[in-house]
Inverse folding.
């Protein structure tokens, strides 16, 4: 986002969104997380 | 935390075909089960208020496949123009349309016609007339320069091989002072080239 000139980047919660799913092992291998994030066009 | 811009050799058209087939199944056969969570249990995991979820049609809820709740970073305001990249069955689109009200509007973009049909059906069921569901891709957003107050997206940009083009497109269409408010996935460990080039890992 910052490389595209957005500013004020805010990270929200991280969620282990693949926990308990069939994708869990692949997701764990890369420490994959669901995240929320927001930024502003200055 | 590093959000890696992945350089991959995956063929973009092949990837689009594979993703479209996968999400056509999520739209038409949500009960079959996937390699990721879907539906009501996922919405609860991502902290969508139960009342907001219950206010949506069941056909919308059952095909929800997001990775977070973009509204946790702020609700939308009445009258705002919104674009939802990869709207799917309309889970966030319908909520956004309610938040911006009749003086606002939502462009709901998806590459899967089966998902767009569910978004249109959901809008009709709820009597929402401020949604314009459009077929298209995240790399070519259907909006004029500086015309959108808020771009939302949920679990979609990770599926695009050229993320910088998507970011630049979003920047192009947002008004000065507008917001880009998304949920997606990040990897916190290095991804080796073989994994980057494995199309099955991209589409799940």
């Amino acid at each position: 986002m910052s490389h595209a000139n957005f500013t004020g980047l805010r990270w929200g919660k991280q969620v282990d969104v693949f926990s308990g799913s069939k994708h869990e092992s692949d997701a764990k291998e890369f420490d994959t997380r669901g995240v929320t994030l927001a930024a502003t066009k200055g | 935390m590093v959000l890696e811009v992945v350089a991959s050799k995956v063929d973009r058209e092949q990837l689009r075909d594979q993703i479209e087939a996968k999400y056509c199944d999520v739209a038409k056969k949500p009960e079959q089960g996937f390699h990721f969570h879907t539906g009501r249990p996922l919405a609860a995991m991502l902290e969508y208020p139960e009342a907001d979820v219950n206010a949506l049609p069941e056909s919308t809820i059952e095909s929800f496949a997001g990775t977070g709740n973009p509204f946790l970073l702020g609700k939308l305001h009445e009258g705002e123009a919104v674009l939802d990249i990869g709207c799917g069955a309309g889970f966030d689109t319908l909520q956004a349309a309610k938040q911006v009200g009749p003086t606002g509007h939502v462009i709901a973009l998806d590459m899967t016609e089966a998902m767009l049909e569910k978004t249109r059906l959901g809008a009709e069921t709820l009597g929402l007339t401020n949604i314009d569901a459009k077929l298209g891709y995240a790399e070519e957003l259907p909006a004029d320069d500086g015309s959108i107050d808020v771009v939302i997206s949920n679990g979609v940009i990770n599926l695009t091989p050229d993320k910088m083009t998507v970011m630049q497109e979003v920047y192009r269409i947002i008004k000065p002072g507008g917001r880009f408010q998304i949920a997606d996935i990040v990897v916190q460990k290095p991804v080796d080239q073989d994994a980057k080039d494995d199309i099955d890992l991209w589409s799940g």
Chain B touches chain A at residues 1, 3, 5, 33-37, 42, 45-47, 67-70, 72-74, 155, 164, 167-168, 170-171, 174-189, 191, 195, 201, 204 (CB under 8 Å).
